[in-house]
Design a protein that fits this description.
By secondary structure, this protein is an alpha/beta fold. The chain contains 6 helices and 10 strands. Helix 5 (about 140-155) packs parallel to helix 6 (about 170-190). The protein is globular. It holds the Pfam family ABC_tran.
């Protein structure tokens, strides 16, 4: 059974007297232990699709199944709980809280969730951030910020990781390092992950590649 499955997803937006079809009959799945990438040109619908996967946006029609549960049928509160406890997000700009020390970034997420706490400092040390535990985000490099964002995404042991252009603000070397960390963590912890990216330099690290163009999605590498 896939961890995440999309069935016949359509997303339309009104455009004056017309309708803009952003996503057209999208079908997709990602399994446990699989790291999938979605590639495509700007404006093809990648970010919209990822936002729907994360229950941050509702499709016009179709089903989003997380562990065979249609999360589109849940209440807003239930969807919030799903995002907090079942889905980990990695954004392109890391989006760290500027007034929290690095160790506290993860502890804050643990505090507001209902998962059993694990040693957040240990995770940061494993990602090479042991010397940054008491630093604030403005003291970190771009690569270090993204490693904190990865730790934060995995801290509640979610079933699904969603990464939106995680290398966008990084050079080639640091970008490859960051995606390598995601890949290794996904495989070691047997999670499912989906990454939207323009960066073809990191596609050697994923297990499957899907291409979206003009709102239509197809699998190009199994």
């Amino acid at each position: 059974m896939p961890v995440l499955e999309l069935k016949n997803i359509i997303k339309n937006y009104p455009d004056g007297q017309n309708v803009n079809e952003v996503l057209k009959e999208i079908n997709f799945h990602v399994n446990q232990g699989e790291f999938a990438a979605i590639v495509g040109p700007s404006g093809a619908g990648k970010s919209t699709l990822l936002t729907i996967m994360g229950a941050l946006l509702s499709p016009t029609s179709g089903s989003v199944l997380l562990n065979n549960q249609d999360i589109g049928q849940l209440s807003k509160k239930q969807q919030t709980d799903i995002r907090l406890n079942k889905i980990g997000f990695i954004f392109q700009n890391s989006d760290l809280i500027p007034y929290l020390k690095i160790s506290d970034q993860l502890k804050f997420i643990q505090k507001i969730s209902n998962k059993n706490p694990i040693d957040s400092d240990k995770i940061l040390k494993e990602l090479g951030l042991g010397h940054r535990l008491n630093s604030y985000p403005n003291a970190l490099s771009g690569g270090e910020k993204q490693r904190v964002a990865i730790a934060r995404a995995f801290i509640n042991q979610p079933d699904l990781i969603l990464a939106d252009e995680p290398t966008a603000s990084l050079d080639s070397k640091r970008g490859h390092e960051v995606v390598k960390i995601i890949q290794e963590t996904v495989h070691q912890q047997n999670k499912a992950a989906v990454m939207v990216t323009h960066d073809e330099r990191v596609l050697d690290l994923v297990d499957s590649i899907w291409q979206i163009e003009d709102g239509r999605l197809k699998r190009v590498k199994a």
